[in-house]
Amino acid sequence: MVIAVALDESADDVREFAEGISFPVLLDRDHVLAELYAISNVPTVVWIDADGTIARPNSAEVGTDMFVDFTGVRPDEHMDQIRAWVRDGVVPADADYAVADLEPDEVQARLAFRIAAHLRRIGDEERAGTWFDRAARLAPMDFTVRRAAMPLRDVDPFGDAFFELYGEWQAAGSPYHGVPRS
Asked: Rounded distance, CA 115 to CA 135, Å?
């Protein structure tokens, strides 16, 4: 079974992207899943077997052609790997990759993000902004912090600020918590 988890603030934020998707799309506005699995970028895929065991850790994969023009990444190889796993129990060679724990600053950044999101929800935009800024300083290459804050700060998450972040991320060597893209 495939389950998508959106790290967004509301169902309205996800609705457009979930149109036509035939599997459940859950909403994790507190980013609990990102913290549990050390997810620092989206999309990220984690394979979990029927017993709840991670069969393949975080990997920067895609399941559709939605962003192929932007990323140059097609889903074909990944989907073939999933089919081999589901049909024959075959996992890729990188399935035993050990995902590094979050660094202390990254943990602090996620806590700062949670505080900022809470302050925003209760209407304290000024203090929320201070905490969003703190989170960004602590984890500057973490999309679950910096990009996730964009729509919460009325910044287009697909606009100029995103492309600036994406350029910084590429210049930093595309850091990622998970299986490196080969």
From this structure: 10
pLDDT bin (cut points 50, 70, 90) of residue 129 is very high
Task: Tell me which of 96, 129, 155 is where a domain ends.
Answer: 96
Nearest to 145, CA basis, from 174, 120, 165, 163 = 165
Helical packing angle, 125-138 and 104-121, nearest 10°: 160
Q: Are 84 and 90 in contact (CB under 8 A)?
A: yes
Instruction: Write the pLDDT tens digit of every residue in 119-128.
Output: 999 999 999 9
Same domain, 47 and 86: yes
Q: Choose the final residue of a domain: 39, 70, 96.
A: 96
pLDDT at 138 over 80: yes
Residue 182 falls inside a structural domain: no
Q: Are residues 117 and 162 in the same domain?
A: yes
Cα–Cα nearest to 129, from 147, 149, 111: 149
Q: List for the chain the helix, strand, coil content (%; round to 5).
A: 45, 10, 45
